[in-house]
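Case study 2.
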Amino acid sequence: MSERYSEEVLVKSLKFVMKTNKQQSDILEKMTAKHTFAIRKAVKILINENFKGTSNELEQLVIPSKNRSNPKYNMKQETGMNYSDVKWCVFKALEMWKSYNYDLTKWEKRSEFVSEKIITKMLAMININHTGKVILNETDFNETIDGFSKLRINRRLKKNKPSLPFSSYKYKNKKIPMRFMYNTNLLGFSFQDDKLLLKISTLKRRKPIAIELEYGNYQKLELDNCRVTGGQIIKNLQKKHWEFIASVRKDISNSQNNRIKKKKAILGVDLGIVTDATVVVLIEKEKLAYERFHFIKEPLLRKKKFNIQKRKRILQQLIEKTSGNKRKQFLHELKQLNSSYVKVSNEACHKIAKRIMLVAKDYLEGGFDVHIAIGRLTGLKRSISKGDDKSKKFRGRINKFPYQKLTEFIHYKCQEIGIRKQNIRNIQEKGTSKTCH
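Prediction:
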């Protein structure tokens, strides 16, 4: 790698619809069921062992090989699957276990902080008189207790406690997709007569299946410029078809000459609910002008979202009142509305991120060293709860605000045009209005 040019890697996912016949869909059903069974087994082992080691240590514990014929848990014998399938199922289980432990440590820190806060409040109301007798100010004590019961801190903490993998009702009968790795013999892509074929190894040895994938111009262009690293096969229960989510890696070349000192252009991005995003461009050693203010709104998509929410409220009221076939119809319509709301929300995030990217592109092509600062809004939804002075409508608007998704889209879209990863940062908004009003 030369001094002048540097490369960055961008990880993306591409969705493909699989054109399957009855025989192929039956094979996929059996495969996903078998993989889920293996992942469940591996998760149970991790819980029983309270595993805190590496992936290599786990492999030695559950998978037999030439060097270790009798491991403690023989997953290959219990599941009846080949070595490579068992290996990736075990790694998937390890991912789930690690994410659970990470969430648990975060929850424990939060609960410790809240309990310390309550104790300090209580100690502040205890007074000791000249005789050494402890006096408790009952009015202050009762007010504080009422305040904490209104906030329902302890109840919220118990609700937010992460559950063990597969222990919740949501994942009781749910199939978990296994990750297929491209560098093994499990997965392969090929173009034949303008048809994109996906070659997958099945549970039967040396009997892979080739399934045709639906693709558009965007997917074809991305596959030409990217390299596939793996993927997952997922069944879409609403549309009743199989989908393949491919993980791709893209090398982005940054042709910024480090020797030449360029003027810095800093894009301050403020995400909001009334205005979707406000972008202010600050240029080094130049006065702030009104032309460098960009107010980004998507009113049509916002109206669509509002209409969907309105219809959802009506349906929820009708579901409570009705029963029988009509109730089933309303429930089916509600499910469809939920999926359409997600689609509209994703479309809005893509459009907002693209408009921010175009602003950054103009300054990048103008020869500026572009930096992007996005307001970090982590913990916003957790701070809004029942019992606060805020209204139900306000809480609803905050909870439906997809700031995390929007920041992710801004990151990857700006990286694609050549802005370095280290130049895009999420910054805490606390106190920024004082420093730059």
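Residues 83-124 form the longest helix (42 residues).
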